[in-house]
Amino acid sequence: MSAAYLGIPLALLAAAAYNVGLIQEKRALARMPALDIRRVPHVIASLLAEPAWLAGFALMLLGLACQTIVLTFEPVSVVQPVLASGIVLVLVLSRLVLRERLGAVELRCVAAMAVAVILLAASTGGNGTGAGHHAVPARMAAVMIPSAAAGLLVAASPLRRRPAGQRIPAAVSFGLGTGLLYGVAALAIKGLSGILVGHHGAATLLAGVVASPYLYVLAGSSAVGMLLYQAGLQSCRAAILVPVSTVTGSVYFLIAGTLLFHEHLPSGPAKLGLRLAAIAVAGLVVITLSRQAPDQAPAETGPETGPVPAAVPGYLTEPGGQ
Q1: What single-letter DSSP state applies at residue 305?
Q2: Which residue in 281, 283, 274 sits closest to 121, CA to CA?
Q3: For residue 264, with 0-12 CB atoms within 10 Å meaning exposed, 13-18 middle and 19 or more buried, which class applies?
C-alpha cells in the first residue's frame, strides 16, 4: 500500500492515541489535589508521581510521534482535519469513561466528523497534493515567536484575578492560549518532519534532530502549553476547553503550515472539492462545539458524572466550573 493511502490511517492513529491519553490525564487529574500553576516544580513533581497521568502522557507522546511521521508524506490540509476529528473521540470517551452525557449537537458532530474523514480519504492522491518539507527559517521565526508569546499571555490570563466585568470564561482563555501554543508546536513538528526526509541512517538522523531549533521550539511550546492545559483541564469543563483549544490550534496550523511550507491543494476539481468540503465540515464541527455555552452543555451533576475537581488556586472560575 502506498504512503498516500497510509496517511489517513496513521493520522487517525495519532488522533486516537493523543485523545485517549487526554481522557486518561483528565481521570488522573480528577483524583489529584488542585494544581497551583504558579509553583511549576511542584506541579511537575505531582504529575510525574501519578502513574495514571504518566500513562496518559505516554499515549499523547505516541500520538505526536505518529503525527511527525505522517507529516513527512501528507500535506497539512489532509493531516490537520483528521487530527481535529479527535474531538469526536473525546466526546465519546467523555460519555463512556467520564460518564458525561452527549447531547443532540454532540451526536450530530460525531456523524459529521466521520463524513469529513471519509471525504478526506477520497481526496488523497493525484497531482498537486504533495507534502512540503522545508520552510524559510526567518519566516518561521517571524510567525512562531509572536504566536507563542500571544498564546502564553492569553492562556495565563485566568491565573490572575480578572477585572470586574470581564466575561471571557477561563475555559475559553485556556483553550485559545493553549491552542496557539500547540499550533506553534505543530509547526515545529512539521519542521522536524523534513529532517526525517533529508537524513538517512540513525546517527545522522539523530544529529539532525538535535541540531534543529525546531526540537527546542517543540519542547518549549509543548511544555508550557501542557502545564497550562493541565490547569485548565482540571478546573474547567472539557466539553468547552478541548474544542476551543483544538479549533484554535487546527486553524492556526492549517493556515500557517500550508503557507510556510508552500503546500498546494489538489489540482483536480473533484478531489479539490472533496478536500475543501472535508475541511469545511471539520471546521464547522469544531466551531459548533466550541460555541456551546455552559448552560447548553449536558448536565454534570449526579452520581454518574464522577468527582468535580477543585478550582486551581490563583484564578477565579466561572459558575459551574467554566
Answers
A1: G
A2: 274
A3: middle
Q: For residue range 290-303, what is the model confidence (pLDDT) as tens digits? A: 665 543 444 443 43
Instruction: Look up residue 21 and give its three cell numbers.
Output: 491519553
From CA 285, how far away is CA 247, in angstroms rounded?
9
Q: What cell does 65 get?
A: 510521534
* Predicted confidence (pLDDT) per residue in 255-300, tens digit: 788 788 876 666 778 888 887 887 788 778 777 766 655 434 444 4
Segment-wise mean pLDDT, segments of 10 residues, the chain, 322 residues: 67 88 87 84 90 92 86 74 78 77 74 75 58 75 94 87 59 87 89 69 74 87 90 78 79 80 74 81 74 47 40 38 41
Phi-psi category of 71—alpha, beta or left, where left has phi over 0 and alpha has psi -120 to 50?
alpha
Residue 125 contacts by C-beta under 8 Å, 6 or more apart in sequence? Answer: 4, 5, 271
Q: What is the dihedral of CA 91, 94, 95, 101, to 10 degrees?
A: -80
Contact between residue 168 and residue 153 where contact means Cβ atoms under 8 Å apart: no
**C-beta of residue 59 within 8 angstroms of C-beta of residue 21:** yes
Rounded distance, CA 218 to CA 214, Å?
Answer: 6
pTM of structure: 0.70
Q: C-alpha grid cell for residue 291? A: 460555541
Closest CA to 177 of 150, 216, 207: 150
Q: Is 72 helix (H, G, I), strand (E, B) or coil?
A: coil
